[in-house]
Amino acid sequence: GENVEQHPSTLSVQEGDSAVIKCTYSDSASNYFPWYKQELGKRPQLIIDIRSNVGEKKDQRIAVTLNKTAKHFSLHITETQPEDSAVYFCAARLAGNTPLVFGKGTRLSVIA
Amino acid sequence: DVKVTQSSRYLVKRTGEKVFLECVQDMDHENMFWYRQDPGLGLRLIYFSYDVKMKEKGDIPEGYSVSREKKERFSLILESASTNQTSMYLCASSPQTPYGYTFGSGTRLTVV
Description:
Shape of chain A: globular
Helix content of chain A: under 10%
Largest sheet of chain A: 6 strands, mixed
Shape of chain B: globular
Distance between the termini of chain B: 34 Å
Oligomer: heterodimer
Largest interface: A-B, 24 and 22 residues
Number of helices of chain A: 0
């Protein structure tokens, strides 16, 4: 089955700097890659996703890139703000109606 | 506009009790999932369902069962609660096509 590795497990950045979180997946048949943000005490919420037929997707200050050859995808947050502090989860999904497989999460702290 | 509702936010149960965790979604999604979330372990899939009366084991089904009698409701059952089942339980739903999940707010279960 699919396996998703996520790095780093914790990340601290200064406000205004960029943050990058990287995930690798094992099954080349995976075709859907969402990212979730979970603020303290709240539910995980989808912030951006990408499908395997696209190399990059951007939404304001966040972007996701996908390298299918290397089987990795990354979340990029620019101009970080204190409200970006949260745990971020990446996930991958095989083709067809299969469950998401999640990475273990990255705790991002943005220091003002 | 809560779309996935978990019946309890916090629960405290005794070892050996039978525990029911309820999840209801109002988005007419076919797929429903139960995950448990533990520090450092990320989100681990317990059970999932693609249709009424259908269920599939996830990665950690031992000690759990599920019920899906109606499309909108997916129940997680701890047959005989144990202290190692103390955790945050997250329910999620999704349509069949590859879109991300919508999560419930979670139930923090403590077994004493």
